[in-house]
Structures
1.
Amino acid sequence: MKKSSLKIRHAKNYLFIGIIGLCSILLMIPLILIFYQLITLGGKSINLTFLTQIPKSPGESGGGIYNAIVGTTLLVALASLVSIPLGILTGVYISEYQNSRLSGAVRTCVDILQGTPSIVIGIIVYTWVVRPMSQFSAISGGVALGIMMLPVIIKTTEETLGLIPMSLKEASLALGVPYYKTILKVVIPTGFSGILTGILLSISRVAGETAPLLFTAFGNAFLTYSIFKPISAIPLLIFNYATSPYEEWHQLAWGASLLVVGMILLLNLVAKGVTKR
Amino acid sequence: MTESVLRLDHFNFFIGENQILNDINLKFQRKKVTAIMGPSGCGKTSMIRCINRMNEWVKNARVEGEILFYGKNLFQMDPILLRRKIGMVFQRPNPFPTMSIFENVIAGYLLNGIKLSKTDKERIVEDSLRKAALWDEVKDGIHRKGTFLSGGQQQRLCIARALAMNPRLLLLDEPTSALDPKATSHIEELIIELKKTVTIVLVTHNIAQASRVSDFTAFLYLGELVEYGETTKMFTVPEDKRTEEYLTGKFG
Ligand SMILES: Nc1ncnc2c1ncn2[C@@H]1O[C@H](COP(=O)(O)OP(=O)(O)OP(=O)(O)O)[C@@H](O)[C@H]1O
Ligand SMILES: [Mg+2]
């Protein structure tokens, strides 16, 4: 009697493990299919021309997406320039003053910001930046992406610093190191790998964003390095080319999709590696 | 007569509603070792944390009365400068995980942005590590991370880090509680050696240790100073019944 009920329990356990295992495998199938599709359709367009040339006129074959690669790089750089220091410092504040009323308010704002649809951030930046400048520009696109990067950076910074023991800060303070130097030279470096992970994940999050760029960076068929002019970006190029009637452009869109997904994958792997250290 | 480096004068310490230290009057003699003893939770750590003003980082902490450091009220001094003159070694070792052994020793200079020449750095590191009885064990891997060391080695590294700043007063909070007998006797020799130049406050639960290295002993009980006197005298003929009970192992 006892033995058989034990057997049933074992069987139930195996059944349960089997079901959750199966679900995990099912989850991986769409991911693998996406990669397969991207590689078969976009793989052949990725070559040196693709990476170094700007698009040709419709109907002509060849050409690349160099302008969009420059654009995305520039946009992400502009976004990082403000959001990384601002995000880290905000994260430091809310982890240092966990129970202050301001920290509570900041946390709520961060949650709301994280849930705000990216298209809404796009139109808000349009009214804040594009209208006053009377110009679509890389700057406005950078602002939109920067706003989207903030919540991830703030949250990971707070979580990372929360794990640093008080005794470490005290070690520094007891040596007569002022509070601000303790934060800058002990606390932040100790949590560096965690903060870096947050930064990489936030970049991978915005690198593929299209909606916030529609009314800000706008897109540009030509190459520009100016931050005051409309600029292309890989996801914008995908959107424009995939909806065009030209087969050559469809090809470029597939290649660009593979490129951006590969980039995001790489960033995530690097972030994983950084966390492990 | 030796002069007093540090004096607690009607000193009280509160955290929120709790009174942790109650009307403490105590003098610490120059270049002597004073042991602070008493059962767990009696306020030993709290007392030495008040001396270098670390308790200011504790929420709702409040002090009453004075602590005089070389005759001046310590609470009116710049806490940053004060902490550079008062070294502290914590109950649990806390080396900086991002720094090498070498950098850990001179962390007080590095973090404060005090420039040192290469030879000065090397001299200070070797001197401090020798004093902390760690040099021979680490000299071949001085640029490895400090967190690779064993717990006892880490504690000696923290002692070296405090010594590197040339403190006038050294606060040691159970510095040997994580050490094996050999490392403990190293540290005890070090304390005896050090008192030629610095005043030392040593928190310890180890009665034998207190009798080996300390000149004076203060006995705390529930936040009050029960007895203070020369160690040899107190350990042979304690005046207070509670001290006697503690020394004979009846509690604590
Ligand atoms: N941050 C704090 N908040 C509230 N109470 C505290 C805090 N730190 C210490 N206390 C209280 O102060 C009292 C004295 O603590 P303290 O750490 O000074 O004891 P101790 O004598 O060093 O004990 P031990 O020998 O165990 O190290 C204890 O009752 C403790 O609960
Ligand atoms: Mg203690």
Note: The mean pLDDT of chain B is 92.
2.
Amino acid sequence: MQRIGVFICWCGSNIAATVDVERVSEVIRSEPGVVFSANYQYMCSENGQQLVKNAIKEYNLTAVVIGSCSPRMHEATFRKAAEEAGLNPYMVEIANIREHCSWIHKDREEATEKALVLVRTAIAKVNLDAPLQAGESPVTKRALVIGGGIAGIQAALDIAEAGFEVDIVEKNPTIGGRMAQLDKTFPTLDCSACILTPKMVDCAQNEKIDILSYSEVEEVKGFVGNFSVKIRRKARYVDETKCTGCKVCMEKCPSKKGLNEFNMGLNNRTAIYIPFAQAIPNVAVIDPEQCIKLKTGKCGICQKFCGVGAIDYTMKDEFIERKYGAIVVATGFRPLKPDKFNEYGYADNKDVITSLELERLMNAAGPTDGVLLRPSDGTHPKVITFIQCVGSRDTSGCGKPYCSKICCMYTAKHAMLIREKYPDTEVHVFYIDVRTPGKNYDEFYRRAVEQYGVDYIKGMVGKVYNQNGKLMVQGSNLIDNEQVVIPSDLVVLATAIEPEPSVRKVATLLTASIDTNNFLTESHAKLRPVESPTAGVYLAGVCQGPKDIPETVSQASACAAKVIGLLVKDKLKTNPCIAHPDESMCNGCSQCANVCAYGAITYVDKEFRLGGGKTEVRRVASVNPAVCQGCGACTVTCPSGAMDLSGFSSGQIMSEVEAICKM
Amino acid sequence: MQDVNSGYSPNIVAFCCNWCSYAGADLAGSSRLSYPANVKIIRVPCSCRVNPMFVLKAFQRGADGVILCGCHPGDCHYVTGNYYTRRRMALLFSFLDYLGIERERTRVEWVSAAEGARFSAVMNDFVKTVASLGENKRLTDLRCKEGSDNA
Ligand SMILES: Cc1cc2nc3c(=O)[nH]c(=O)nc-3n(C[C@H](O)[C@H](O)[C@H](O)COP(=O)(O)OP(=O)(O)OC[C@H]3O[C@@H](n4cnc5c(N)ncnc54)[C@H](O)[C@@H]3O)c2cc1C
Ligand code: SF4
Ligand code: SF4
């Protein structure tokens, strides 16, 4: 029999207002096994914890039950307190009488009765608790960053700065991400390339950083501190170590019809190409869909002209396997394709473009060398109409229910840049709301209106149609309560941003959770915003939720701090609440290994004594404590009842059921 | 929740996985989204930790309804745990139905950590459904009922 101490927390009035804590404490005192019972205003406070520690020593407690907030909140706190008083930390159970009781019930009598049941249930469980010892596992001092946008770049630089090795796996031929495509950036309007490319070069030059471009993660095994990752290095057909980035091949390549992805398909590129002038690595890549040699066997011109013999048409995808202690996911986003929204006529009119396409049209390194020209006829647009919230805040099912957060700001930016460069241009903006919180952000938007005379119209657009070469934008003006039609030369859609679709695969490989919009979920929205619920996996940038560059960079640095905090440790404590077979009952049937998602179970031959001096060798299950995650799938599958789970044993759960049903 | 006429109030055992549903229940709590006090939650690491024996035990001990909550299919913290739950419980519940424990007394629901409102709605609905069926007498070990020494 345990010697149990029970501590009921008031949580100020959070619990005490609804649950009669004094009574719970009093009634529980007479439960079998309970040798001490108390209640206190804030159990988690220094004094509250001291109360537990003192009682453990004074009453020789062997087990502790705390009636308080959710164990997800303070289980770790109380375990630590118990440990400091010399008790095994796993001899502590929490009865959740706040979230699961006082906060959802109004009737004091009912809530008090329920609290009593919950505390009795915890007592039933703690009675069968056994001291557990957390194991240790070593930490591989190397980090993996998936995605080489500004988020991944920043995280990698910070981690490397602290002295740890880090690999960036980027699916595209170059790092840089979306930021590399931007022209100027709000709120300061500095040129995107001027602030990004030095960071890209830093990555390339940092000897701690290994850039694995044109690569994807294929398989992830292991767990925090000990991930083993298989990476596919896609065939580039160009030897990265030889190519000098001289671009002779691009000049000579006869296949010139590939859509230039970097310019959002606004112009074409050759089959062999370097995505943009400052690409890192500055190495060519062959697009196998466009390459004549790879498709028909004829051509081979680039190979002839390459002065360093870098071209290799026989190259195959390669796989490498590396070990990491921590993983940062920074897979970013893509703009939503607006062709589904027929009302805006994106699919039918060349001069209806997206904001990212506009970034390319305004960029000095873009398809028009930075001169703003209409895609249809190459003329200067005189009237430009922006439509905000295209596919954002859209609950019709066609778009996304969330606010994409960055569009109000970049549309103000676009409007201002256009008015600055082409003062004779008329600029209209249709908006639902202008949302510009942030340091110097609202000032930025007001500048567009007050200083640059941009015409902001509150209202939605119903239709964009072509009439005699003009794009007629028909919408409502809610302030003047009238319908308006604006004949325009160019229409720009501020489309929603959505997570890069491959994030689903990445999330599955990492068993990281993802929300209904495909954004990765954080461990705690407020208190653990850069950690995934999967230990050792961290989230940076837009893959976690819409955000601009300053926020992305802050989050990436926060991630790096977390990763560094993990990698400086030599050993990690492992969760001792894991499966273990009763070898005398196991018959080696292999059913448990079949259901284990982690491959934690193997089989070993063991010798058993049969009595009378005889022995027998039998095959029995064996659980790898560093790999088992403690889900319990095997325990239920086992037909012999041999497998059990520490901390959540069958006996414990049965006794909890009994405690609840005893009424 | 209590029936005003008979004074009958169902007793409900809810198994919630630690990662999604238990957190969903916590969110229901911190959002003050009430549901009847009849529901008592047992925390398990994964819904797949729930052995059919636990469910049988609950009914034997006089529970009127048992509900299992886990992460949505595809979102299991342990990758595939909830798929096992789904299959195991489909079998168990139809077996229980055969024994006379109405299908409405047993349920599997997927509730994510972000779905506090859903958790509360599910519990409200489940308690209402079970309350309308009245007391579970079918499997109950009468020795476990009130007044007996074994209680
Ligand atoms: C039109 C427009 C204008 C903008 N203007 C501004 C501005 O003026 N100021 C500002 O602050 N912000 C602006 N932004 C927002 C800014 O672009 C983002 O905040 C920023 O790019 C986010 O960086 P990221 O690293 O999270 O994502 P990304 O830039 O999308 O980078 C993600 C990287 O990960 C790679 N990747 C994706 N999936 C995988 C995978 N499975 N495996 C390996 N690699 C993968 C991608 O190829 C990419 O390189 C603008 C955005 C748009 C659309
Ligand atoms: S508890 Fe889960 S992770 Fe551990 S051995 Fe069993 S099935 Fe595998
Ligand atoms: S399922 Fe049970 S009996 Fe079969 S091998 Fe696993 S532990 Fe042994």
Note: The domain at 12-144 of chain B is CATH 3.40.50 (Rossmann fold).
